Amino acid sequence: MSTAREDLLAAGLAVFDRDGFEGATVAEIRSRARASNGSFFHFFTSKKELAGTLFLEILQTYHAAIITSVDDTCGASDGVARLIHAHLDWVVSNRREARFLFEISRSEWGEEVRGAQRTENSRLTDAIERWRAPLLARGELLPMSPTLFFSQIIGPAQIFCRAYLSGRHSGDPREQVETLIACAIRAVVAPGAPKRTGGTS
């Protein structure tokens, strides 16, 4: 059974998705969550704080999906494939959350969560590096910074995801997965490294 705080966060997500941050109101969020004014302000000092909390919780969920997609049993090509599958699957399965994470502007409230966001991003980087480091040492992955590596893996997929999330393109971005994987492998996997083993979970 959900708690009042969870109800408010779920209501906030729905209202932000429909009205954007600027158009959303505390009154509408409270109404959707069936929460009193006192209940709202018991958990959040403002709409801005609710948005920041929601952003961080969704970011953690997204990062968990990415992190758990690879482990030390994955080779270079297989790991690249799993990372791309994990990103695309999460976006399609969590479309409203993905729209909030990637599409809704944070100019009004993002600064307040910037430090926590950097911490979460560092955790993601550390987790991916634990998988990547042995492959770099064996020469199976091309040497590049963690940021460049991740941008080569997720960046092209994200172009399709943003078009899908904004409604500019109605097709499922997973339809492009094999081409995205092939391109990412050419970008980051060293020539002669072991081929994909077929795992995509």
From TrEMBL:
<dbReference type="InterPro" id="IPR001647">
    <property type="entry name" value="HTH_TetR"/>
</dbReference>
<keyword id="KW-0238">DNA-binding</keyword>
<feature type="domain" description="HTH tetR-type">
    <location>
        <begin position="2"/>
        <end position="62"/>
    </location>
</feature>
<dbReference type="InterPro" id="IPR036271">
    <property type="entry name" value="Tet_transcr_reg_TetR-rel_C_sf"/>
</dbReference>
<dbReference type="GO" id="GO:0000976">
    <property type="term" value="F:transcription cis-regulatory region binding"/>
</dbReference>
<dbReference type="InterPro" id="IPR023772">
    <property type="entry name" value="DNA-bd_HTH_TetR-type_CS"/>
</dbReference>
<feature type="DNA-binding region" description="H-T-H motif">
    <location>
        <begin position="25"/>
        <end position="44"/>
    </location>
</feature>
<dbReference type="InterPro" id="IPR050109">
    <property type="entry name" value="HTH-type_TetR-like_transc_reg"/>
</dbReference>
<dbReference type="InterPro" id="IPR009057">
    <property type="entry name" value="Homeodomain-like_sf"/>
</dbReference>
<dbReference type="Pfam" id="PF00440">
    <property type="entry name" value="TetR_N"/>
</dbReference>
<dbReference type="GO" id="GO:0003700">
    <property type="term" value="F:DNA-binding transcription factor activity"/>
</dbReference>
<protein>
    <submittedName>
        <fullName>TetR/AcrR family transcriptional regulator</fullName>
    </submittedName>
</protein>
